[in-house]
Amino acid sequence: QVQLVESGGGLVQTGGSLRLSCAASGRSFRWNAMGWFRQAPGKEREFVAAIGWSGDTTYYADSVKGRFMISRDNAKNTAYLQMNTLKPEDTAVYYCAADQFYKSTYPPTRPGSYEYWGQGTQVTVSS
Predict the structure, then answer these.
(1) Which stretches does DSSP call E strand in the chain?
(2) What is the block-wise mean pLDDT of the chain (127 residues), using blocks of 10 residues?
């Protein structure tokens, strides 16, 4: 059974940092792009960051560019999202996802392009 399990969420003050992890099991995602999305109450799920299978290509939403960094450790089958200088508007449930395609040239930024999803981890930034 394929599973993606996020961890590392929590409550943090404005300006603080958190590091989210996404541990995959059941199959290797060594050759698949990985992404992070978030969903705030009453809002649609939105793209946060994506990383290509090799780790060489990364994309970020404009709202997090310069503050968040996505990375991956293929040996551990794990993706990460380092979040710095957090703002109250970053408050959301954060989801990791794995692309269904082998060696995608560009990591996708649309939720519909991802086949596997984690259950989400809550990030709350207090003002």
Answers:
(1) 3-7, 10-13, 18-25, 34-39, 46-51, 58-60, 68-73, 78-83, 92-99, 114-117, 121-126
(2) 96 98 95 97 97 95 98 97 98 96 90 95 97
